[in-house]
Amino acid sequence: MMSRQSDKPRSLIVGHPEIPRQIQDARFENPATKTALATLLANDIKARCLSQDRAALILGTQQSKVSRIMRGQVHTGISQAKLLEMLMKFGHDVTIVVDPVQPREGRARLQVVAKSKGS
């Protein structure tokens, strides 16, 4: 029997040692999620009026990767984990919720929800 505590979703911070390795595993990457994360990042770069070179410096990546993010071309060469890390460098709070196992074993799901500043 599961305890009440284990029935509750757990929030984990990206980079925390308890995060399951599967989150960084390419088999669990979702194209729609990667596109949503890249869109959030591209919107931030535009809103901050940053050049691609300046954004790359802040994000700790190459200008060519920033260019690909700006064009939405993130399905190869940029992981979901890296996109999440970049969003955190821009001050976003990223929470990964791990729910109790459901009948759909072997499948992971990462949902991107962008909150407005008033939320």
* CATH class designation: Mainly Alpha
The CATH topology assignment is 434 Repressor (Amino-terminal Domain)
Poorly predicted tracts of residues: 1-16
Rounded to an integer in angstroms, the radius of gyration calculated over CA atoms is 16 Å
Mean pLDDT: 75
- Read across the widest sheet, the strand sequence of neighbours is 1-2
The biggest sheet amounts to:
2 strands, antiparallel
> What level of helicity do the residues show?
25-40%
Tell me the total number of β-strands.
Answer: 2
- Structural class given helices, strands, pairing? mainly alpha
Principal-axes geometry comes out as elongated
Describe the fold and architecture.
This protein is mainly alpha-helical and 119 residues long. The chain has helices spanning 4-7, 31-47, 52-59, 63-70, 80-89, and strands at 10-13, 95-98. The termini are far apart. It is 39% helix and 7% strand. The chain has one domain: lambda repressor-like DNA-binding domains (434 Repressor (Amino-terminal Domain)), CATH 1.10.260.40. It has a two-stranded antiparallel ribbon with strand order 1-2. Helix 2 (31-47) runs parallel beside helix 5 and helix 3 (52-59) packs across helix 4.
